[in-house]
Amino acid sequence: MTTAQTTSKSAAAIDKARAEGRAALIGYLPAGYPSVEETIAAGIALAENGADLIEIGIPYSDPVMDGQVIQAATTEALAKGFSVSQVFDVVQGITSRTDAAVLVMTYWNPVVRMGVDEFSRRLAEAGGAGLITPDLIPDEAAEWMEASDKYGLDRVFLVAPSSTTERMQRTVDASRGFVYAVSIMGVTGARTSVSTAAKDVVAAAHSAGAERVCVGLGVSNAGQVREIAAYAEGVIVGTALVAAIRDGGVDAVAALTKDLSTGLSRTGLTEEEA
Fold it and tell me: What is the pLDDT confidence band of residue 64, given thresholds at 50, 70 and 90?
């Protein structure tokens, strides 16, 4: 297990950003939207314009956590015939051209259907950093814990405003790379303001021993990025990037990423903010 921990690609990417005096930027893209080739191109654009980590989402027929924009994108990808195994092509296409850590975000069922060991092996071979698993809790993750250790993959679990102290501790202990803090209760989607609960969730995760906490759900502009960068190690942007590729293609993703990255710096913060 120690070997896998020392080679955490997610931790390395976040620590590199921290050494540069900023939070890490994590961008989400659904695999296969608008096409596999465009997902790869958009991932490369993310990395070239300020993203430190990239989440590639596997389209799923019952996306309980996703808001309308992401649901529409994943539904379109599935309608075009996207298959789970193509996610490895996307990951490899990005990792072969960039230094960004690339994680796959997926509901657990597609992994189980392929086989946890098989999925993990193929992800590692594609250069992937690990998995973000929104509907898998550590108590039910024995097979994934074993496979992630075997292949040196990060395992990112989610914590929320509703997480009990015990649940928070268990999740922090089980995670590797970073802990994903959900800033709001409900589905994803760009919002005009970031929930104040986000800061409390991050503080609770830090108290439980988490070294790296990244905040997602609802972040859509540089101002919100700046707000979160004051207290979290990473900022996750999804819906706004999916809307960008929908409306303006890869160029729009590049432009938005560049803009979002202007909010990452932690320099110039007051002591209270930092």
Answer: low
Instruction: Report the residue count for the chain.
Output: 274
**Rounded to two decimals, what is the model's pTM?**
0.91
Structure tokens at 233: 């190690």
The tokens describing 107, both together, are 């509901």
The Cα 120–Cα 168 span in angstroms is: 25
CA 174 centroid distance within chain: 17
Q: Which of 50-64, 91-105, 129-143, 227-241 has the lowest mean pLDDT?
A: 50-64
Q: Could you report the per-residue pLDDT of 171-226, keeping only the tens digit for each? A: 999 999 999 998 765 545 555 555 678 899 999 999 999 999 999 877 889 999 99
DSSP letters for 44-93:
HHHHHTT-SEEEEEPP-SS-TT--HHHHHHHHHHHHTT--TTHHHHHHHH
The residues near 191 (Cβ < 8 Å, ≥ 6 apart) are: 184, 218, 220
Quick check: 215 and 234 in contact, CB under 8 A?
yes
Burial class (CB in 10 A: 0-12, 13-18, 19+), 255: middle
Burial class (CB in 10 A: 0-12, 13-18, 19+), 50: buried
Residues designated as active site? 55, 66
DSSP annotation string for 139-162: GG-HHHHHHHHHHT-EEE-EE-TT
Reported confidence tier of residue 86, pLDDT bands at 50, 70, 90: very high
Token pair listed for 241 = 């990037």
Asked if 17 and 229 touch (Cβ cutoff 8 Å), the reply is no
